[in-house]
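Annex B. Sample input.
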Amino acid sequence: MSKGRLEAFSDGVIAILITIMILELHTPKDATLSALVEMKASLLVYLLSFVFLGIYWNNHHHMFQVVHHVNGAVLWANLHLLFWLSLVPFVTEWWGHHVSAALPTLAYGVVLLCSGIAYTILQRALVALEGPQSPLARAIGEDRKGLVSLGLYASAIAVAYWAPWIADALYVTVALIWIVPDRRIEKHVQHAHHDSHDE
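Annex B, continued. Sample output.
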């Protein structure tokens, strides 16, 4: 089964989610700097969510560069990931309006954690299809970076009710960990291109 439609659909969904987020970011009430400063929490939450969606789009693109085909399990795993990502605009707006409140902070973390789990499930579905010796399987390896991220999300959720600011810091930490595209897959793509030119 061709992977092209899956990639195109996923790109479209993520583009729509980013559009929804910016449409929900309302302009300042007045044409003053103080009115803009009052929106700083919403702007920072928007920026963080934009970065997270960008990270998922970037890594999704890199992952499918080394995948040759998809099957039904992969299609459903991809839809599962898109479901959780589709909730990002909702929790972004809620948290942005109540940035110091525990429940919105926790809900944001739940969506991020479930998105991370869904991405891991998608990776495993692709590895199961492509095989344990496939370029994707070799690139991912034990996926320590992914597991660390899930652990940080879970920790943020655990402390959100008592110290929302620690949860905030953990979300930012994960974003910083992933803001550079996954070099493991990039290296395998480069090696594949190099080997094809040598032949």
